[in-house]
Amino acid sequence: MRRSKTEFLCAALGTLYSIYLLAYFADTAAGSIGGSIATMIVTPHMLMCVLGSIFAWIAFFNNKRGMALTAAIMFCVAAVMFTMYAELCIPEIILGFIGYVRIGKILNEENGGIQS
Asked: For residues 9 and 101, what is the distance between their CA atoms, to the nearest angstrom?
């Protein structure tokens, strides 16, 4: 069974970015009250990025188009929720939508041209 390399890149970048966010804001929140407030403001963005990464990995390992689309949409929502970090989500968004299309092509080839 072939897998989408693009979806792998999306999932890997999303995971690395999520780890960065969690580590940075865990350290910031421990420092002061201002850091705690900043962490509360960024928490929805972090949650969407983590969920997007989880869905991207599910899409990669199971070749599920719906999960790839969900992951890309989650990264879009994360970008809208905290626009200051939106440019950091753009690679995941682009790779997520391309991965969605590639998984569809892979499934189409494996099914002999039959759409499923």
From this structure: 14
Tokens 């892979």 appear where?
Answer: 106
Please list, in sequence order, all residues whose beta carbon lies within 8 angstroms of the beta carbon of residue 53, skipping any fewer than 6 positions away: 11, 14, 15, 17, 18, 71
DSSP 72-99: HHHHHHHHHH-GGGHHHHHHHHHHHHHH
Q: Which residues contact 94 (CB under 8 A, 6 or more apart)?
A: none
| pTM of structure | 0.90
Residues 50-79 have pLDDT tens digits of 999 999 999 999 999 999 999 999 999 999
**Is 3 strand, coil or helix?**
coil
